[in-house]
Structures are given as structure tokens and as C-alpha cells.
Design goal:
225 residues, Rossmann fold, six-stranded mixed beta sheet, four-stranded antiparallel beta sheet, globular
């Protein structure tokens, strides 16, 4: 098998106030994989993905992107390779019009290019934020809670969009049906550690795993492994 495009080994990280966010995390993602990162609030999911483009730096362990270690000399190249889309699109859309911020055809909002971002719906802003990152031609797309506060129709549109992009994808989400629809593999984190890694359907069908790590499928949704 080829070397992983995301290679995290023994990653440990504590915030300046001493809060331990990650402990000995291992994560290996290969090119073209779509991986959901699941877990309760405070599990360390966002802390982990912020290491992938050098926003956070490991206390111990290593992080490599396409074979490049996260060091100052590589940050420009790594940040081109890793496109991080934040949960709040307003954190990324800051140009006067959407067209200044993005290449829009890939996300089906080319007709909105001359609209100011604040005139768009949340779903449109979220797609515009994704487009802005895609304009950098990244190798890896990292989405932080891409379906939060979206209506069901817009959620389906986002799911369809990210599947057809054909890019290596890491999705931080509490939306378990979205994870099942979009990602063939899931990684469960809790208390700063990876506690499970496998096919998404199998993990979501593991009732004991779900209970132990405070994950819940929507009412009435039942999976068999």
C-alpha cells in the first residue's frame, strides 16, 4: 500500500493552560479516502485537525502531510495541500463578493458569484466557503461540522457535493447519517484518544461502542453491522 497522505503518529498536545487535548493519537489516511471523525464534544476532534496545517503544533509525536513534516519551512506548501473549511463560513468569506473568494462551478453556485456573502443563505455560504478552499487546489479537504444548522434539503446537497469532488476528505461531524452517507470509514475519538477505527456502518451499528462514547443515531434509525 502507498504511504498515507495524512500520517499522524503518537500525537500528544496540551493547551498552554495545561488542558490535555490529545494523547498518543494515531491516524493514517490514504489518498482518495473519505473519513469521518466522530466523538462527543471535547473528544479532541478539532484539536486534531488543527494540527494538519500547522495551526496547532504537537507537544509530542509527528504529523506529516504527503510526506512533509509539520515544520515552519513546510507550512506554505502544507497549507496549500490541506484545505480546512471551518464550521462557521463567515470565518472564511471576507471578500466583497463571492466571486472574489472562489471558483464556484464545482459547488453549483456560479450564478451567485456577484452576490455579497452576507446576502447568501447559510447553505450557500457554506458551499462558497468550500469553493474558496477548492480554489487553492488542495490534496486534502477537511470539513468541520459541514451540516450544522442546515435544513434537510441543503444537507443532501452538501453530501452530494463532497462525494462527487473525488478528493481525500476528513469530516468532523456529529451528523451520523451524513457520516454514513459520505464516508466509508470512520474514526471515533474520546477524551483525546482514538478509540475505534473501521467501516462507518460497522462502527455505527456497534451499540456498545455508541453508548460508551455518547454517540446516538437519530430516533428510529437502526443499523446492522
Amino acid at each position: 500500500m502507498t504511504a498515507p497522505i495524512i500520517d499522524v503518529r503518537g500525537l500528544t498536545f496540551a493547551y498552554p493552560d495545561g488542558t490535555q487535548a490529545l494523547s498518543d493519537v494515531e491516524l493514517h489516511v490514504h489518498q482518495g479516502e473519505r473519513v469521518a471523525l466522530l466523538g462527543p464534544n471535547g473528544a479532541g476532534k478539532t484539536s486534531l485537525v488543527l494540527h494538519l496545517n500547522g495551526i496547532h503544533r504537537a507537544t509530542q509525536g509527528t504529523v506529516e502531510i504527503s510526506g512533509l513534516p509539520i515544520v515552519d519551512a513546510n507550512l506554505t506548501d502544507i497549507r496549500r495541500r490541506v484545505g480546512l473549511v471551518f464550521q462557521d463560513p463567515d470565518d472564511q468569506l471576507f471578500m466583497p463578493t463571492v466571486r472574489r473568494d472562489a471558483a464556484l462551478n464545482a459547488v453549483d453556485i456560479a450564478d451567485l458569484g456577484d452576490r455579497p456573502p452576507h446576502h447568501l443563505s447559510l447553505g450557500q455560504r457554506r458551499r462558497a466557503a468550500i469553493a474558496g478552499v477548492l480554489a487553492m487546489d488542495p490534496e486534502i479537504l477537511v470539513l468541520d461540522e459541514p451540516t450544522s444548522n442546515l435544513d434537510p434539503a441543503t444537507r443532501r446537497e452538501v453530501a452530494s457535493l463532497v462525494v462527487r469532488l473525488g478528493i481525500t476528505l476528513l469530516v468532523v461531524t456529529h451528523d451520523l447519517p451524513f457520516a454514513l452517507e459520505v464516508c466509508e470509514r470512520a474514526v471515533v475519538m474520546d477524551r483525546g484518544r482514538v478509540v475505534a477505527d473501521g467501516p462507518t456502518r460497522s462502527l455505527l451499528a456497534d451499540a456498545e461502542l455508541m453508548r460508551r462514547h455518547r454517540l446516538e443515531l437519530p430516533f428510529g434509525m437502526v443499523l446492522e453491522g
